[in-house]
Amino acid sequence: MHAFIFLFLALNSLYTLSFVEATKSFSIELIHHDSPLSPFYNSSLTPSELITNAALRSISRSKRVTLSQNNEINESPESIVIPNGGDYLMKIYIGTPPIERFAVADTGSDLIWVQCSPCKQCFQQDTPYYDPSKSSTFIGLSCDSKPCSLLPQDHHKCGKSNNECEYLYTYGDNSYTIGELGTDSINFGQKDVTFPKSIFGCGHDNYVGYERIHKTTGIVGLGAGPLSLVSQLGDSIGHKFSYCLVPPFLSKATSKLKFGDDEAIINGNGVVSTPLILKSSQPSFYYLNLEGITVGQKTVHTTDGNIIIDSGTTLTFLETSFYNNFVASVKEVIGVEEVQNPPSGYNFCFTSGEQTKFPSFVFHFTGADVTLKPENLFVAFANNFICLSVIPNDQTFIFGNRAQIDFIVEYDLKGKKVSFAPTDCSKN
């Protein structure tokens, strides 16, 4: 829906990310949007309201992904900021002296972006805008810098006063961000994990057409494109990272985001791997090939297996005909009847009784059979009311974060594979 512009870290020594040698492997805590540890936590909301809100955020986000896929203007990297986007948050500290910010950890984008002062127009946030003039380590990028030249031609220009690199990014719903590109020190609350010359977008004029929660100030893009934090770290982390997502809502545990060979690699029994598909036309997204889904003993095959794996979308989105066949199998194998008028954001719901038994669910990715628990695919409302956290969509197919809960998910960008290992993420 809205865009955030960010610059690729050029393979140019002037902009090479430098950091302490010991930070080749490190980990960061992630907080679910609706966890009691989250700044967004609202104790007055019922579990049913939290579940509904999560679904609505997913649908809003899927529309933004669809816009970025279908709109030529958005072929360059883009990002999404919550509340209607990603569900897992991380703290970042930017500038010198460092200021704390909550940002979305998002594998569906490849930008680092914050609102900046002076601000011509910004959406409201609870903290002061990042002020580059108050950071002794901020450096603005010039219009003739290598990073600036990597912006799409129609989306950047030279500033009139001092030749700074200015950007403009828009989406189909008229959301936009305008600002300058620069570098500054970014860390994650660990003294020995500081990145002095991170390139990011400093937005001075921003508009987003959705209800805003005032804690979030930006995102940390972890996507496949060359603009992400992962790409900036590059060889230093072996082009590898992983995360382990804890269940949402009432969990007081934090999820873990790990970088580098020593931290991110998963080994042992139960690890399965599938090819990672990177598309030059959509550099922000990680694609997998989903061949089918088994419900109990019944397998449904798909004709279009291209699916985005995304940490920032709660629900899973499947092509409509494939979804319909999948739901038909769920009804048949579980033996339930669909209820009418499901809650907003959900498509298939039923009432569970004492005799209801859930089968195993296996997502068949190329070379990797990933067995999901019922909790990965269903959400429970009051009075034994159950909804499937999978919905149909004819434009964007997404393997969402609920399906990934209690898995270590490793991304090996150099080896071009994604690996899964089931675990208890609250203990990992």
TrEMBL record:
| Identification of the protein by name | Uncharacterized protein
Q: Which organism is it from?
A: Trifolium pratense (Red clover)
Organism lineage reads as: Eukaryota, Viridiplantae, Streptophyta, Embryophyta, Tracheophyta
